[in-house]
Design brief:
Layout lengths: L3 H27 L2 H28 L13
Amino acid sequence: MESHLRSILKGVSWRIGGTSVTIVVAWLLTGSINIAAKIGVIETVLKIGVFYVHERIWNRVSIGKKETPEYQI
């Protein structure tokens, strides 16, 4: 099972790449780096939260999970 911290760190690292793409696309569409940066910040905050909730929900779903043994030798 993943810890809350691990889920947060995964979300942050994923969003760095995603936000970079969003800022570049917004900059190309608007011609304003200032507007593009604002869009990127808003998008990042929202998507980190959504990703975190998504990960926590999937941690409760048993589909595809392997049971951990009671003991290991």
